[in-house]
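About this split. The held-out portion is used to measure sequence recovery: a designer receives only the structure tokens and must propose an amino acid at every position. Recovery is the fraction of positions where the proposal matches the reference. Here is one held-out target exactly as it appears in the evaluation file.
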């Protein structure tokens, strides 16, 4: 039986204010032409240009000024040495990436094939009017002049035979042609460790090394003292136990490694939305091709290199590529986007210009591999215990060895007849060697008894058994430490949406016109003016989309689960999505984020009126409202109804509904 999450919706009208703090003031500072003529931007001592001063200018300022305790005085300003270090590191990473790329291209050219998809040499671009190397170089070097030569983003899109609004054609042959011309969004992976490498690593455990030494010593002494027939038993049994532990550990680690590789491939196979043929479709990140138009939202990973088509307050976290924890604002002056980076804030759309090994992220991923050889917390503690036991055992064995040797050579040790075993000048060399070997055997026995040879095997078998039991319950185990952690868990806290449910939402309860609607999506009880206002707010203030198939099939609604639920609800109310978007234009957007808990758009209507539509957490939006629109389409003060709306929000929250206000 399928289960779907529900979505509560509270609708109120918010009065527009021209001095909205988030919208910003209408006045902006401007420099007159006269002021610009007075200053030379290249002058390092030009005070009016210090905000965006070059590193060289700042360095000359530091050299020109004598400052006491400079490290303290300049602690809140740009660290020139650190900036130079970051710059050198970026250059080194890029140089390293280019060397790897050149080697890969050389290898692929010789083999006439590319792993994970075919590719042509760099100079071949199929039926497209742009050279691959120049396209990759433009994005990699973030060269604005080259972009302008191509005619900006629009010119690049035309050369790539892509539409900035509708994307490429939704055709399999089109996708294959682009992969052949520009490569696929994959990169060669390093081979995992072989089974023999796991065998090599397994025997290097400290406990096993002590046991191996003890086994060899016990075997040699046993054969020396008791002969080959019975003397090999003790040493051989220890050696067999050690060999069994090594084999079981290696097999378990090797199977875990294979499982981890499969899980890692699944983790990297991100599903994302792209525009193809005017509709939003979900594809694998590996299927992204050059020319694709990809919408970007907060939290998304940039799937490939590209240029920004348009956006609102788009900020990118490029720390994964540059090493600097700076959030970079992207606009038409800085439109280049690097794959592997995260969208920190805002919304936008990008045109893909580079994929796979033609991106720095792909080259870096091809040059590194993830180390999965970590020990579990239990293994770490047991290794510590085994080391402690080994040290204590060796210490006791050494003390016993010294004590027995002192007693022997001082004549204190006696044989079965009560006579001293060692008499100076009388006892033969052969008897002395035999007696010393027996004493040494006692010391080795102490070490063997002290170090538990079954401990590593017991730990390995227990963890492997736990992993198999969890997998039988359809719980994929990525790390063995998860078995220990889950074994100690008494309560599991989980979010509901998308984890315990199908992550499919619908609007089930609505308050509009100052009262609760009997049927959530029935517009009969609402004034046409209110329905029109709701429709405009939903159609413009959304990152989702509604697609009407040309063959007249079922309408396709895309976006986040919440967006899809609201769009579907408004569509049933009679919202004409494309018509509303064509009749009004968004002049500014305030993207939703978890801090503000609301997002909005400023919409310019055909009659030159500007409306600001907000959408977000019900209690946040309600606190900003001064009026609401009643069922007659007239604005009423919200003071008298404030408590009514608060009770409605509490009621929805108690029913585990996600409450949204417009």
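Reference sequence for scoring:
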């Amino acid at each position: 039986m399928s289960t779907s999450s529900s979505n509560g919706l509270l609708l109120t009208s918010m009065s527009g204010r021209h001095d909205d703090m988030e919208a910003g003031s209408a006045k902006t500072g401007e420099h007159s032409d006269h002021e610009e003529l007075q200053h030379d931007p290249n002058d390092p001592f030009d005070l009016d240009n210090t905000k965006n001063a070059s590193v060289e200018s700042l360095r000359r300022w530091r050299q020109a000024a004598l400052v006491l305790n400079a490290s303290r005085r300049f602690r809140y300003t740009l660290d020139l040495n650190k900036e130079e270090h970051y710059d050198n590191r970026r250059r080194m990473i890029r140089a390293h990436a280019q060397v790897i790329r050149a080697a890969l291209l050389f290898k692929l050219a010789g083999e006439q094939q590319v792993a994970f998809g075919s590719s042509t040499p760099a100079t071949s671009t199929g039926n497209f009017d742009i050279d691959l190397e120049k396209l990759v170089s433009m994005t990699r070097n973030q060269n604005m002049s080259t972009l302008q030569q191509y005619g900006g983003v629009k010119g690049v899109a035309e050369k790539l035979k892509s539409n900035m609004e509708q994307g490429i054609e939704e055709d399999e042959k089109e996708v294959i042609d682009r992969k052949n011309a520009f490569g696929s969004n994959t990169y060669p992976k390093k081979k995992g460790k072989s089974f023999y490498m796991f065998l090599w690593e397994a025997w290097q455990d400290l406990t096993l090394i002590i046991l191996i030494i003890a086994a060899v010593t016990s075997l040699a002494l046993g054969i020396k003292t008791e002969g080959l027939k019975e003397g090999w038993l003790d040493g051989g049994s220890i050696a067999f136990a050690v060999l069994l532990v090594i084999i079981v550990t290696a097999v378990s680690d090797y199977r875990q490694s294979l499982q981890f590789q499969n899980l890692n491939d699944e983790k990297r196979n991100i599903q994302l939305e792209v525009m193809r043929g005017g509709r939003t479709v979900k594809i694998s990140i590996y299927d992204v091709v050059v020319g694709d138009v990809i919408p970007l939202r907060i939290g998304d990973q940039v799937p490939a290199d590209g240029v920004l088509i348009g956006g609102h307050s788009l900020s990118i976290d490029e720390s994964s590529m540059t090493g600097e924890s700076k959030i970079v604002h992207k606009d038409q002056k800085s439109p280049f986007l690097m794959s592997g980076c995260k969208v920190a804030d805002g919304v936008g759309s990008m045109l893909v210009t580079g994929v796979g090994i033609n991106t720095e992220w792909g080259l870096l991923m091809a040059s590194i591999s993830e180390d999965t050889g970590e020990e579990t917390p239990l293994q770490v503690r047991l290794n510590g215990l085994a080391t402690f036991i080994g040290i204590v055992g060796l210490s006791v064995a050494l003390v016993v060895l010294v004590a027995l040797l002192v007693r022997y050579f001082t004549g204190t040790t006696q044989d079965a007849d009560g006579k001293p075993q060692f008499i100076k000048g009388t006892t033969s060399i052969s008897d002395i060697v035999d007696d010393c070997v027996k004493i040494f055997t006692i010391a080795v026995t102490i070490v063997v008894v002290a170090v538990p040879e079954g401990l590593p095997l017991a730990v390995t078998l227990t963890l492997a058994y736990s992993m198999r039991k969890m997998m039988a319950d359809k719980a994929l185990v990525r790390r063995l430490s998860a078995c220990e952690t889950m074994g100690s868990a008494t309560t599991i806290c989980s979010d509901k949406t998308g984890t315990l449910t199908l992550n499919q939402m619908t609007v089930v309860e609505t308050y509009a016109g100052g009262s609760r609607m009997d049927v959530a999506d029935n517009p009969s009880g609402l004034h046409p003016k209110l329905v029109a206002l709701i429709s405009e707010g939903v159609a413009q203030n959304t990152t989702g989309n509604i697609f009407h198939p040309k063959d007249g099939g079922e309408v396709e609604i895309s976006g986040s689960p919440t967006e899809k639920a609201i769009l579907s609800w408004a569509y049933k109310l009679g919202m004409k999505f494309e018509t509303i978007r064509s009749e009004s234009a968004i002049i500014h957007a305030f993207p939703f984020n978890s801090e503000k808990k609301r997002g909005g758009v400023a919409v310019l209507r055909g009659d030159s009126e500007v409306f600001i539509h907000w959408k977000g957490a019900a209690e946040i939006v309600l606190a900003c409202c001064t009026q609401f629109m009643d069922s007659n389409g007239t604005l009423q003060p919200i003071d008298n109804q404030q408590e009514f709306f608060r009770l409605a929000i509490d009621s929805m929250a108690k029913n585990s509904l996600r409450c949204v206000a417009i």
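Annotator remark: The radius of gyration is 36 Å.
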